[in-house]
């Protein structure tokens, strides 16, 4: 039982693991998948941001080239008209004007400021090809606003730094644009923190953070780089979707595994396999019901009857013997009954050579000489006489008449008397029985029950008794429960009886004790069959 319990618990554990493992694996894969997508998305976003920064810078360069071709002197009406044209044409150019001697001269937005002496600060950078660049420069038009100003050959353009970073992004991921020559921060999106982005830029975006992913991208043509970041949970909506999908797959696969394990366990726990286990472990007992001579109620033998207690419940032999017959388990069951009978009663049988035990055998046991061979081998050297082990066959074996005739003859030849069990309930008739040589006829309990009662079926018993006498076989009445039945049977010459009036089936030790007790009359015993 312990081994089976461990097999069952192992199977249950396996079922659980089989159910849970795919789900856990699914969660892990979903997590990895979401992480990879998040990083890919962010890298793509950084590339878009650097393209925008390039586009804005090229507009400044192109605008200055247009302005260089302006006819007439600086701040002339023709010049101012050309500057207005540039502002209108270049989306990211906010203002375009002329400077000289470190001062603003004019622009369409400032007007002519030559007399106002508006000083220009020193540029943050002078490039080799003549460009002057002011990073985050304060525009004279506004105190609040910081521009990027680019100048060349007396012309300048002002560009709103936000143009570099105002990409349409529903996730509002922070962006920072840096000059790769000076490491200066050119532009920062609304939600970005300058120190944080600068740190990430210096670390080339290799920042370890539980909350953020960072990515960077560099321009191939301009000295520009961008740093972007996205919160790790910014893809949570997507991540939960993926997780949901993987979980569903995990649950389906897990459910399938669980169902298969459950089926396997159910099969293992099926009644026939439990019976097979019980037979193999010899967990089936044998009890012995006394057989008495009716005339003087002397016990002359006993019938071996199987008993099986499963989880504290008595299983009826009528049920499990039939299951054994249908599942190829009857031969090991018959062998088990023989083994236990000899193991438990050999000493007693040797000491009482006239006492016998009858064993029930099924038709399958009689198709070949197998059981007779087993029986003969088992008795060898035990000192038990063959006549002490008798064979009970039911009428059903007569279906295969020729084989049965030979088997019966072989048992009798080997010295084992043969009984026909449950007589009257099966297929045969008395006349059919004439063609077989048997020793004892057991009249079924159903005919004995009606004896000495006013029932129509009570005519069957006297009929069987009469015919048995004519055939010259001895008679054993089954299921005797009342004294009136004994009187009736004795009167008609029935020699033997078996029934609760004399004794119920009992264990071998109790049988031996019961037989040894001095008594004037055998008392009913309550052993195997009473709880
Ligand atoms: P069976 O061979 O006809 O066995 C006699 C049955 O009648 C037994 O039932 C016995 O307990 C019951 N019985 C005996 N006296 C009385 C009585 O006075 N009143 C009542 N009500 N019943 C009585 P059990 O032990 O339940 O066995 C049922 C059947 O199971 C047996 O009928 C036999 O066909 C089968 N069986 C039992 N043991 C074996 C076995 O070792 N091998 C095989 N193949 N079949 C067996
Ligand atoms: Ca029997
Ligand atoms: Ca019977």
From TrEMBL:
EC number: 3.1.4.52
Range of residues in the leader sequence: 1-25
Bilayer topology: Multi-pass membrane protein
Pfam families named among the record's database cross-references: CSS-motif, EAL
EAL domain residues: 268-519
The entry's keywords: c-di-GMP, Cell membrane, Hydrolase, Membrane, Signal, Transmembrane, Transmembrane helix
Matches recorded under PROSITE patterns: EAL (PS50883), PROKAR_LIPOPROTEIN (PS51257)
GO function terms (MF aspect): cyclic-guanylate-specific phosphodiesterase activity
GO cellular component, one term: plasma membrane
Swiss-Prot/TrEMBL catalytic activity: 3',3'-c-di-GMP + H2O = 5'-phosphoguanylyl(3'->5')guanosine + H(+)
Lineage top rank: taxon: Bacteria
Compartment annotation: Cell membrane
TM helices/strands, residue ranges: 239-262
SMART domains from the UniProt entry: EAL
Top EC class of this enzyme: hydrolase
Name assigned to this protein: cyclic-guanylate-specific phosphodiesterase
Species for this entry: Paraburkholderia largidicola
Gene: ylaB
């Amino acid at each position: 039982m312990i081994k089976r319990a461990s097999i069952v618990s192992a199977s249950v554990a396996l079922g659980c693991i089989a159910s849970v493992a795919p789900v856990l694996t699914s969660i892990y894969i979903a997590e990895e998948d979401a992480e990879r997508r998040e990083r890919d998305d962010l890298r793509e976003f950084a590339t878009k941001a650097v393209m925008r920064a390039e586009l804005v810078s090229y507009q400044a360069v192109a605008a200055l080239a247009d302005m260089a071709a302006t006819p007439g002197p600086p701040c002339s009406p023709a010049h101012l008209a050309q500057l207005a044209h540039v502002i209108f044409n270049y989306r990211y150019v906010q203002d375009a004007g002329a400077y000289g001697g470190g001062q603003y001269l004019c622009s369409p937005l400032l007007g002519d400021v030559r007399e106002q002496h508006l000083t220009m600060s020193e540029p943050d950078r002078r490039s080799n090809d003549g460009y002057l660049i002011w990073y985050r420069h304060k525009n004279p038009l506004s105190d609040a606003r910081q521009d990027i100003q680019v100048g060349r050959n007396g012309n300048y353009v002002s560009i709103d730094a936000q143009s570099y970073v105002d990409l349409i992004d529903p996730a509002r991921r922070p962006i920072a644009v840096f000059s790769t020559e000076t490491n200066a921060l050119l532009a920062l999106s609304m939600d970005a923190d300058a120190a944080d982005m600068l740190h990430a830029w210096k670390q080339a975006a290799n920042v370890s953070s539980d909350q953020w992913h960072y990515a960077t991208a560099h321009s191939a043509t301009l000295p520009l780089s961008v740093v972007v970041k996205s919160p790790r949970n910014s893809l949570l909506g997507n991540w939960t979707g993926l997780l949901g999908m993987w979980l569903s797959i995990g649950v389906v696969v897990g459910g399938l595994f669980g169902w298969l394990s459950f089926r396997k366990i159910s099969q293992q726990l099926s009644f026939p396999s439990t019976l097979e286990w019980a037979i193999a472990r010899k967990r089936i007992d044998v009890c012995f019901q006394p057989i008495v001579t009716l005339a003087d109620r002397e016990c002359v033998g006993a019938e071996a009857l199987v008993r099986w207690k499963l989880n504290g419940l008595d299983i009826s032999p009528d049920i499990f013997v039939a299951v054994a017959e249908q599942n190829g388990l009857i031969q090991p069951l018959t062998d088990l009954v023989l083994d236990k009978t000899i193991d438990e009663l050999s000493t007693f049988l040797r000491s009482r050579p006239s006492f016998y035990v009858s064993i029930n055998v099924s038709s399958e046991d009689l198709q070949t000489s197998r059981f007779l061979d087993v029986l003969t081998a088992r008795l060898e050297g035990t000192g038990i006489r063959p006549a002490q082990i008798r064979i009970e066959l039911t009428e059903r074996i007569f279906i295969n008449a020729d084989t049965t005739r030979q088997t019966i003859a072989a048992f009798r030849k080997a010295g084992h008397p043969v009984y026909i069990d449950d007589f009257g309930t099966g297929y045969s008739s008395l006349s059919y029985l004439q063609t077989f040589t048997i020793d004892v006829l057991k009249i079924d309990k159903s005919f004995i029950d009606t004896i000495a009662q006013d029932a129509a079926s009570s005519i069957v018993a006297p009929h069987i008794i009469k015919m048995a006498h004519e055939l010259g076989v001895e008679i054993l009445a089954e299921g005797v429960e009342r004294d009136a039945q004994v009187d009736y049977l004795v009167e008609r010459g029935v020699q033997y009886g078996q029934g609760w009036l004399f004794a119920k089936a009992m264990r071998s030790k109790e049988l031996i004790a019961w037989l040894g007790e001095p008594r004037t009359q055998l008392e009913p015993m309550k052993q195997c069959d009473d709880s």
